[in-house]
Structures are given as C-alpha cells and as structure tokens.
Amino acid sequence: MSQSPSLGLMVMWFLVVLALIPVTLWVLKRSGMAQGMGSQAGAMRTVAQHALGPGQRLVTVEVGEGEHRTWLVLGVTSNSIQTLHTLPPQAEPATHAVQPGFATLLQQIRQRGGKGQA
Predict the structure, then answer these.
(1) Is 61:45 a contact under the CB 8 Å cutoff?
(2) ∠ CA 82-85-91 to the nearest 5 degrees?
(3) Residue 65 near residue 78, CB atoms below 8 Å
(4) What pLDDT score does 98 carry?
(5) Residues with Cβ < 8 Å from 78, sequence gap 6 or more?
(6) Sheet of strand 56-63, all strands in order from the earlier edge strand to the far edge
(7) pLDDT digits (tens, 9 = 90+) for 66-76
C-alpha cells in the first residue's frame, strides 16, 4: 500500500511534464526566440528568384548587414545548392507593374459598354 501514493505522484508529475512541452514550445514561438536560433535575424533575405524548370531555380540572396552585405547568385535544385556568382549589393530590381484584378477589368469593360449603348 505504501507504493500507491508514490506511483500516483510519479504519474502526476509525468503528466505535468507532458503538458509543459507544448506550452513551452508555444511560448518560444510567440516570443520569436525559436526563429533565428544560432543566426542573426535579418542577416539573409531573398532578393529575386526565377524558375528554370521543374525543381530548378536561380535565386539571388543578400547576406550580411550594413557595409558587409553581399549578393549570392545560387543555382538551386532538389539535390543541391551551388554558388554561381558573388557580387556587391545592387539597386533593387524593378518590380513589375501591378496589374488590376479581374473584378476591376470587368467593371471597366461594363462602364465602356454602357457608354457606347446610350
């Protein structure tokens, strides 16, 4: 009978530890500590990427901060990542003009059609 209380206590502590695992992971995720462990946050960012084929991409990545920034042109496949070229940081590539959505285009067509019929 003396074993019963210690077994119950052991089971209770086991359940407490099991409950603390997801709580601890949630706290780490919310605090941002889990992200960037072992590396500086913001020390690397993707500048541009272009799909060459299935599973093949050409990616330009900026590494470092401030005056120590460098751009790496990488060839990325499902099996490997190869550094193709290293260059100093350039001006940001021109972004493509944002095209209006389908709803906007449809509204413009309807407005033109309504004026022509009147």
Answers:
(1) yes
(2) 125
(3) no
(4) 63
(5) 55
(6) 44-53, 56-63, 70-76, 81-87
(7) 888 899 999 99
What is the residue extent of each domain of the chain?
1-35, 40-90
> Hunting for tokens 């086991």 — which residue is that?
14
Q: Which of 106, 63, 112, 107 is nearest to 88 (CA)?
A: 63
Q: pTM for this one?
A: 0.46
All residues at 6 or more sequence positions from 42 whose CB lies less than 8 Å from its CB, including other chains: 65
User: Left (φ > 0), alpha (ψ -120 to 50) or beta: where does 15 sit?
Assistant: alpha
pLDDT digits (tens, 9 = 90+) for 87-101: 888 776 556 556 677
